[in-house]
Design a protein that fits this description.
alpha/beta; pyruvate-formate lyase- activating enzyme; OB fold (Dihydrolipoamide Acetyltransferase, E2P); five-stranded mixed beta barrel; four-stranded parallel sheet; globular; binds iron/sulfur cluster
Length: 412
């Protein structure tokens, strides 16, 4: 959108005409970082320099024109439903106008406003299939800042994927807050499982991933895709958040430890080499030592290859923010340390057996070291190996010779 207005990317913020900060408010830490970053960006505007500072994303949605009042050097605040207004807002800001737009848009209108995501990679692209969330997990701010769930028209999704395939894209990542509930509420769109099958029929697209999945909506139909859609990646992100049923109930997650494990078992039956990644929140209000031990034991049962783990932070307006935050910070940090130590062990133990195996790697660009190229294997791990740019865009068979915490080293 900005390119259409004549803007181009730069690595030099001091000399730029515009800085747009895309923000996240899912945790308190991420939100505080936005304010620190904005305070730092302010220096570029000194001496009356004409530069537009814009804030988009969830913090923009949450704070609205309060951001303009608090921070006089911010020019634009663009809410999560208002990205289509970006061009006219930027044109106004070029004339000195300060503006905030955070109105939620009706679903009928929203259906025509899904922006195509132009990533940097020519080979792997995100494709939005749904936005927003109706789950209202007690700790989560997403339904308040992204709005209610809406599924994009399948015809629009498929047209975008076909277009990407024509441009040479080989992998698509179907994106949404909870892709598993795609189509459920429309009554006329395919289910997410059927959408995956339709995407898999598109020539040129050789690998399909999706994120993120709510375990309660992981249907048997979707699980069966891992058995009969070979283009579907063997890695799945399935956030458990806790291994304790009492904490899961307080979180309002809508599943139990047992039902979560049951879905994992079914997924493994469909795709024996599947690998799991997940999210865990540590120190949720009321989490006892016993609850925490149950989370560790869940991790032992699943053995995630990667895990995003966080200390709970209350988010304004959510149900959990009203619960007494009863765990001392030191206890939460000690739990997080133990959990991360266990995860490091699991990552190490799960990665080692890949040594000696051959993986099909979609080469996306330069590798970690000179003379190397890099890409992702089907299981989502980054693989570096010796090669040159002629391999970019190809699926190359690579033998794994070494495993690191965040990547694998291989040879052709
Ligand atoms: S399903 Fe995910 S996005 Fe939706 S409320 Fe729960 S944690 Fe937030």
């Amino acid at each position: 959108m900005l390119a259409d207005l004549g803007y181009a990317p730069t690595n030099n913020p001091a000399a730029s005409d515009m800085i747009l900060l895309n923000t996240c408010s899912v945790r308190g830490g991420a939100e505080e970082k936005v304010y620190r970053r904005l305070a730092n960006l302010r220096i570029y505007k000194r001496d009356g320099k004409k530069q537009i500072i814009a804030v988009g994303g969830c913090v923009a949605q949450q704070e609205g024109d309060g951001l303009l009042r608090k921070l006089p050097y911010v020019d634009l605040v663009i809410g999560t439903h208002n990205l289509h207004l970006l061009p006219e807002m930027v044109r106004g800001a070029e004339q000195g106008e300060r503006r905030s737009e955070t109105t939620f848009i009706d679903n009928d209108q929203r259906l025509d406003l899904f922006p195509a995501i132009k990533g940097e990679s020519r080979l792997s692209r995100f494709v939005t299939v749904m936005q927003g969330c109706d789950n209202f997990c007690s700790y989560c701010i997403v339904p308040y800042v992204r709005g209610r769930e809406i599924s994009r028209r399948s015809a629009d999704v498929l047209a975008e994927v076909r277009q990407l395939a024509n441009e040479g894209v080989r992998e698509v990542i179907l994106l949404g807050q909870n892709v598993n509930s795609y189509g459920l509420k429309t009554g006329h769109e395919p289910s997410f499982a059927d959408l995956i099958r339709l995407v898999a029929e598109i020539d040129g697209i050789d690998r399909i991933r999706f994120t993120t999945s709510h375990p309660k909506d992981m249907s048997d139909e979707l699980i069966s895709c891992f058995g009969d859609v070979p283009k579907l990646s063997s890695q799945i992100h399935l956030p458990a958040q806790s291994g304790s049923n009492s904490v899961l109930t307080l979180m309002g997650r809508g599943y139990t430890r047992e039902s979560y494990l049951d879905k994992v078992r079914k997924l493994r039956a469909m795709r024996p080499d599947i690998v799991f990644t997940g999210d865990i929140i540590v120190g949720f209000p009321g989490e006892t030592d016993v609850d925490f031990e149950q989370t560790l034991s869940l991790m032992e049962e699943i053995r995630y290859i990667d895990l995003f783990s966080f200390v709970y932070s209350p988010r304004p307006g959510t149900k959990a923010a009203e619960l007494p935050d009863d765990q001392p910070r030191a206890v939460k940090m000690a739990r997080l340390d133990r959990l991360m130590e266990l995860q490091r062990r699991h990552t190490r133990e799960l990665s080692q057996p890949y040594i000696g195996s051959t993986m099909s790697v979609l080469v996306e660009g330069e590798g970690k070291l000179p003379g190397q190229v890099s890409g992702k294997a089907d299981i989502g791990r980054i693989v570096n190996f010796s090669g040159d740019s002629s391999l970019v865009g190809l699926f190359v068979d690579v033998k794994i010779i070494k495993a690191y915490p965040n990547s694998l080293l291989g040879e052709r």
